[in-house]
Every structure is written in structure tokens, then in C-alpha cells.
Predict the 3D structure of the following.
Amino acid sequence: MLQILDFTRNNIIATKAEGKLSEHDIEKIHPLIHNILDRDQKVRWYFEMENFSGWDAKGLWEDLKVDLKHASDYERIAMVGDKEWQDWMTQFMKPFTSAAINYFDLAEKEAAKAWIEN
């Protein structure tokens, strides 16, 4: 499940991923990205993972399509979650974007929010 957090505003998309992400979850992000791009801004994404177990097949395919389509539209991505996902997620994202990507532990949520805002 992908939840849109209250921290979403201006050019920041804030989400929390739990369990497996589906195609429907990824589709929630697309209108948010386009609202930011329509204002000629770059996207900053706060992506929090708690009890995250990846994507189902359709969810992974949809995520790849979105990432490829918007590769140059991201400015910063804050990955927040357990250490086990740090290397994998960072390596997964890098080929799809030139954005600055930083990883934060769950205990560092406030630091991640501050980094994504500045």
C-alpha cells in the first residue's frame, strides 16, 4: 500500500510504502508529478518505507514506466527506511534519474524532511 502523506505540498511528494506496492499504488503518484511539472518545477520525493516488501509484478512494471518517463523531472529523492533496503533502492533508482538521492534510517525522518525541503 502506498499512502500519500500530509507532508505533500508545493513540489514535494511525500509517501509511505507498506507491504507490497501494486499498479494502483503507483498510479496515485502520476497526477501529483504532473501537477508539479505543470508549474514548471522539479519533483522532490520523500519516500518512506516501513514493513515494505517490494512490488507485485504489475506494480514494478508501472513504477519502471513512471521512472523512465520522468527521469529528468526529479530534483531530490529522500529514501527513508530500514537498512536492508538502502543499497538495493539506491542502486535501483540511480539509472532512472540524475536527482540527488539520500538514504535515511526510519529514526531520521525529520532530517529527511528537512533535506527534501531545502
User: Anything to note?
Assistant: The longest strand covers residues 43-55. The CA atoms of residues 47 and 79 lie 5 Å apart. The first helix runs from residue 23 to 27.
